[in-house]
Amino acid sequence: MNTADIDAAMPKGHEPRPDDERLHMALDATRMAIWEWDVEADRLVVSSSRWINEDLPAGYQISRLEEGLALLHPDDVAGYRQQLQDAVRRGADFSSEFRAVRLTDGKVLSVVQHAKCFRDERGRLRYVGVIRDVTEQKAAEAALRASEARLAAIFAQAAVGLSELSLDGRFLRVNDEVCRMLGRSSESLAALRMADVTYPDDVSRSSDALARLLETGRPASLDKRYVKPDGSTIWASTIISRLDDADGRPTALLCATVEITERVQALEDLRRSEAVFRTLGETVPALLWMSDAEGRPVYQNPAWRNYTGLTHAEAQQHGWEVLPHPDDLPWMIEHWQRAIRTGEPFELLFRCRRHDGEFRWFLGRVRPVRDATGKAMRWVGAAIDIDDQQRMNEALRDVDRRKDEFLAMLAHELRNSLAPLASSLDALRLAGGDAAAQKLHGAMGRQMENLVRLVDDLLEVSRITSGKIELRRDLVDLRDAVQAALETSLPLVDAARHRLDVTLPGEPVMVSADPIRMRQVVANLLNNAAKYTPPEGSIAVALRVEQHTATISVSDKGIGIAREMLPRVFDMFLQTDRDHKRAQEGLGIGLAIVRSLVEMHGGRVEVHSDGIGAGSEFTVRLPLARGVVGSSQPGAPSSGKAPSAKSTVGRRVLVVDDNEDGAASIEAVLTFLGGDVRVAYNGETALELLESYRPELVLLDLAMPGISGYEVAAQVRARPEFNDVKLVALTGWGQAEDRQRTKTAGFDFHLLKPVDVMALKNLLGMV
Question: Which CATH architecture has domain 158-265?
Answer without folding.
Answer: 2-Layer Sandwich (3.30)
